[in-house]
Amino acid sequence: MWTSTKQSPLEASAFWPDTSTYRRSSLSTTMADIIFDYVPSSDLPTALEIEQLGYPPDEAGTEASFRLRQSQAGNLFLGAYESNQGSRTLIGYICSTLSPATSLTHDSMSAHVAGSSSVCIHSVCVAPTHRRKRVGLALLKEYVRRLEQAQSEGSGSLERILLITHDDLRGFYERAGFEWLGPSSVVHGSRPWFEMRFNLSANKERESETQILDTNQQLPPGVLEALQRRPDVIPSSRLISDYPNGLSDLLQPDTTTEGVSVNKFDLLCPRDGCGSKILKKGVGKWVERASVQVNHIVVPPLLSAG
Ligand SMILES: CC(C)(COP(=O)(O)OP(=O)(O)OC[C@H]1O[C@@H](n2cnc3c(N)ncnc32)[C@H](O)[C@@H]1OP(=O)(O)O)[C@@H](O)C(=O)NCCC(=O)NCCS
């Protein structure tokens, strides 16, 4: 996947020991042997080797970018491990950083801004020996599941997961619930990039809808219908102008606060046949404000025809 190719002084090759670990992996891996866990710094050399086998040199992440992502956003660097008799070998990973931007750009990919709303995926990569065995899809679904969980538990302000891809992997990401947004503004290499998004807030909205539904379902039978039914007796109402002393007939002293007046009657909706209570008796405080000068609009007399 596209990533910044800027080199940094951190890219000392001494950091990388022998990186042939994943090649020892068995080819007969089943999903039961796969576990998901965050990638520790000790597994970064293996991750980098998988990356270099997965992307052309100008697209592959660098040692420095891997170290930065893992140290700054370790809980966004998830690995798929092949587990075998107590030992485990990294065979794939997804890594991301956070950005406040709502779309992927060179800028939003170039820095990690902690506490931001967009998870920007830099790389989804599976070792060549383990491809087309559903490892990538399982890892991606697990990644989304963990972020959804973090979002629903209110940790951070995560709203979406963003990535860019070439069109041949559209189906792969759609199978994990990502939506196709169309051409990306990112230009890198000869092939066009497309942006895809997973909306984490949608999950929250779905949850609150479910909660409302649940609450309704817990109501005793008939309560909802009773609330929706029009009342048999609609209270009669009077207009303010019907009171001989105007407002002073409608106010009474508040029993709890000296010098404050409150409404003496319920305030009802004046719509024909409605009569719903808008303000209950004794709740509204009367407040006097400076009067406002209203300019009179002079309406010219209508011209008579003929
Ligand atoms: C893309 C990648 C992560 C997929 O991992 P994987 O473990 O092989 O994928 P899965 O086995 O889980 O694939 C699930 C489905 O996704 C689709 N899919 C996977 N790889 C695909 C590919 N290269 N082209 C088209 N569709 C693909 C298929 O529908 C596949 O189901 P199928 O095998 O029944 O046809 C892996 O090929 C890889 O690491 N590639 C190099 C790095 C890369 O390009 N990453 C993506 C950057 S945007």
Task: Note down, in words, how this protein is organized.
With 306 residues, this protein is α+β, with helices and mostly antiparallel strands. It has helices at residues 44-54, 63-72, 106-110, 135-152, 170-174, 200-218, 223-228, and strands spanning 34-38, 78-84, 87-99, 118-126, 160-165, 179-183, 194-199, 251-253, 261-263, 267-268, 277-279. It folds into 2 domains: 13-201, Aminopeptidase (3-Layer(aba) Sandwich), CATH 3.40.630.30; 240-279, no CATH class. It contains 7 helices and 11 strands. Strands 1-2-3-4-5-7-6 form a 7-stranded mixed sheet, with helices on both faces. It binds coenzyme A. Coenzyme A (COA) is lined by residues 1, 54-55, 124-126, 131-137, 165, 168-169, 171-172, 175.
How is the topology of this model organized?
Elements: E1 34-38, H1 44-54, H2 63-72, E2 78-84, E3 87-99, H3 106-110, E4 118-126, H4 135-152, E5 160-165, H5 170-174, E6 179-183, E7 194-199, H6 200-218, H7 223-228, E8 251-253, E9 261-263, E10 267-268, E11 277-279
Parallel strand pairs: 4-5
Antiparallel strand pairs: 1-2, 2-3, 3-4, 5-7, 6-7, 8-9, 10-11
Helix pairs in contact: 1-2, 4-6
The protein binds coenzyme A (COA).
Keywords: Acyltransferase, Transferase
Domain N-acetyltransferase: 34-201
Pfam family, one: Acetyltransf_1
